[in-house]
Amino acid sequence: MSWIKFELVNNIQIISIDPYDPVIVTNIPKGWNLLGKGNFAAVFTHASLDGKVVKVYAENRDGIKEEIQVYKKLGDHHSYSKLDEYGERYLVLKKLDGITLFQAFRDGVYVPKTVIEDIDNAIEHAKQRGLNPTDIHGKNVIMNDGKGYIVDVSDFLKSYTCPKWKHFKKMYFLFYIPLFKKMHFALPFWLLERIRKAYQYYLLLSGFRRKQESADENDFSH
User: Is the domain covering 2-94 a CATH 3.30.200 domain?
Assistant: First the structure.
């Protein structure tokens, strides 16, 4: 699909200013829709790509070669997307429908335990394939009809131990389940962002971010 490179990748601008914040996307070509943004890349849809999405990496970020390797190792699993094609800065992936857990909290949509169980099973599958599932959190997990999916696997070749999913589950069972049983409530965006920033600060104080950055440097130096 060389037309994706000429029509989308060569025209769009995607910049990552902070590796812990979403990328900035400008100059989206006509006919393309921005579906979501991560810290290193953005995802787009197009009417001619039925059931597929295009993930484009920021101009100033690496990692696409590693992500291609991850999808090849994962194979076909119901809780992950599937790699269809790729180019120098983009991946064509199977589209996974649903909302992120972050969006569910924001909109007051109940997150059932089956979603958590699906993600646990997906993590175990990745480990069995020789991968190291990392950076799994509320913005990288989506749910649909009670099923859970991991939408970002770009860090699964990294060597550090990531506590994010373990911490997420702890808060889910300790606070979310008891509170949501009594009343359904939405958490405002500003509060979720403050929680996200506070958690990043906690990771910094705990030394995790330094370990992560050190591992990143060592992994990409090979």
Answer: yes
Task: Name the region of 210 (left: φ>0; alpha: ψ -120 to 50; beta: rest).
Answer: alpha
Strands 90-94 and 99-100: unpaired
Beta strand ranges found along the chain (DSSP E): 13-15, 24-26, 32-37, 41-46, 52-57, 83-86, 90-94, 99-100, 141-144, 147-150
Query: Which of 134, 170, 128, 173 has its CA nearest to residue 150?
Result: 134
| C-alpha R_g of the chain | 17
Question: From CA 138, how far away is CA 131, in angstroms rounded?
Answer: 20
The CATH number of 99-220 is which of 2.60.40, 1.10.260, 2.50.20, 1.10.510? 1.10.510
Quick one: which of 23, 84, 80 has its CA closest to 56? Answer: 23
- Sequence ranges of the domains in the chain: 2-94, 99-220
Q: What is the mean pLDDT of each run of 10 residues along the chain (222 residues)?
A: 90 92 95 93 96 95 94 96 95 96 92 97 98 93 97 91 91 89 78 77 67 53 42
Give the pLDDT of residue 220: 46
What residues pair up with 176 in beta bridges, in sequence order?
A: none
